[in-house]
Write a structure and sequence with these properties.
Radius of gyration: 19 Å
Helix content: 25-40%
Order of helices and strands: EHEHEHEHEHEHEHHEEEEEEEEEHH
Number of strands: 16
Strand order of the largest sheet: 8-9-10-7-11-12-13-14
Structural class: alpha/beta
Amino acid sequence: MLKVGMVGLGGISGAHVNGWLNLPQAKIAAVCDIRPGQLIAPMKRTGAVGYTDFDEMMSEQTLDIVDICLPTYLHSEYAVRAMKKGCHVLCEKPAGLQIADIEREYQAARTCGVQFMIAQVLRFWPEYEFLKEAVETQRLGKMLSGHMYRLNNMPGWSWDDWMKDESRSGLVPFDLHIHDLDFIVYAFGKPKNVTHYRARTEKQDFIHAVYEFDGSFITCDSSWYTGGYPFGAGFRFQFEKGVIEYAGGALTVYEEGKEKQRDVSGSRNENGLGLPQSDGYEREIRYFAEKVESGMPITRVKEDELKTVLTILQNL
């Protein structure tokens, strides 16, 4: 049985708790947050011991895995601290705000002989996996163009308002746009050219980016809008013989000479973030747990790809 300790019990942690609870080979043994009130619900759901001090948790518990859902600027520090205690680490995206954060984390994993993975969930999201497979097999011919979007309102729910602080969150590029860009690098490789436009005020942040490849391009829109704008995410990709669209929780293939086919549907909103429910979180957690158990290397999320993404983000 894999004993898991969770650190940081903010909004995204609920999706991680659900994932671990669905793994019969794992148990959440400990949860940690500096806010005592945040411990109550996950302790009831998991039977875990609650801590408000990370060092106390690490000294009292013998953990196999530490799952980090802390604010972005704390990811690298706590990932390395956990690995130095001999724990395998799954860490929410991004790896950090600097290339040095990635290098520090992966070097710690190599030195300590543990598994380390950044939870880039779109790599495990069924609809995006379907798209990647279509690109690789060229079942609809070559990809000609793509559009991806991830739109939300300015977050007002984060602890200490850290998400609105560029030095701690990196704002829209590192919090929101990173999802789509990471998938682009994962599925298509490093773009040959990047063009972007940004409209930013104290209450809004919007990015429109164009990623160019040989013979194709992908546009992306990412936002923190004002006025309670609802969360929405999806894509539309044009191929030589059809279009694949993910919108409104449904994946639709419009294939030349055929009527449309719905391949995946039924997403619904969960938790206070308005995130669409999918088994993507569970799939990334299951993948990580299997690699820990088998001792096989993690190949789904690679250090060099994360560095490519971060280098692009730093210039947006």
